[in-house]
Task: inverse folding
């Protein structure tokens, strides 16, 4: 019994995929029950942004005329220091904890300098965003009209629910072999994999690095690694049947 179960698990891993393809992403989006969830999936898949970046987006970050979205790179660690004594500051500090100087303006300026990237929107996604904003979708919170107004946990639930409805199988990490359910980051992976398959030149990888907001190109280069299934197909071509005339 245990042997049969082990064999079943091995067979499952052989057929398991490492990433979502565009058709599966489309099924995922179609499984969403409302416009907010469809837009969340669309933005994650079409922009390849991190879930934290998507959830922090406000209608103020969308330029409907230029068809662009400004994304704040939240993964960048923000180092704040008092301009007078050099003491470390928190993001909410108004006065320096060491010298007592007012640092509200300095903190605001440092936040403003946080690394950002401006991404372009395709026509379909732009139209979806316009309909969502016109329909009163954004939620006003903390002085900003957030597009989604949900937390990370709820975002994960949305993706898992839609994956279940769409009948999508779990994904396998090509490097570690660990099996994961469909999650927001898998849509970022799907975008990157699609981009590399379309253009894996040096310039293409550089542009992908800038688009994804990777500090190091080494991180982006990981997407050039061929998935296990494709590697297997490549190997079979090497040692497959020889064509006539090859001797």
Result:
């Amino acid at each position: 019994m245990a042997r049969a179960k082990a064999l079943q698990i091995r067979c499952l891993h052989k057929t398991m995929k490492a990433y979502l393809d565009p058709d599966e992403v489309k099924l995922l989006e179609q499984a969403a029950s409302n416009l907010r969830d469809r837009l969340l999936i669309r933005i994650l898949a079409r922009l390849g942004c991190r879930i934290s970046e998507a959830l922090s987006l406000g209608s103020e970050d969308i330029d409907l005329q230029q068809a662009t979205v400004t994304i704040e790179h939240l993964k960048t660690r923000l180092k704040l220091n008092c301009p007078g004594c050099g003491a470390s500051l928190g993001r909410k500090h108004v006065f320096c904890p060491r010298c007592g100087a007012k640092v509200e303006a300095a903190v605001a300026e440092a936040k403003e300098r946080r690394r950002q990237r401006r991404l372009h929107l395709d026509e379909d996604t732009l139209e979806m965003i316009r309909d969502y904003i016109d329909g009163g979708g954004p939620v006003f919170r903390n002085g900003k009209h957030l597009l989604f107004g949900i937390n990370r946990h709820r975002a994960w639930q949305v993706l898992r629910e839609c994956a279940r409805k769409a009948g999508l199988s779990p994904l396998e990490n090509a490097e570690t072999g660990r099996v994961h359910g469909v999650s927001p980051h898998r849509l970022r992976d799907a975008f990157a994999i699609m981009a590399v398959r379309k253009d894996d030149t040096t310039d293409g990888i550089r542009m992908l690095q800038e688009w994804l907001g990777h500090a190091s190109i080494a991180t982006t280069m990981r997407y050039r690694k061929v998935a296990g299934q494709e590697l297997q197909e490549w190997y079979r071509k090497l040692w497959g049947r020889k064509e006539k005339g090859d001797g």
In short: The chain has eleven helices and seven strands. The chain has two domains: 16-76+114-233, 77-113.
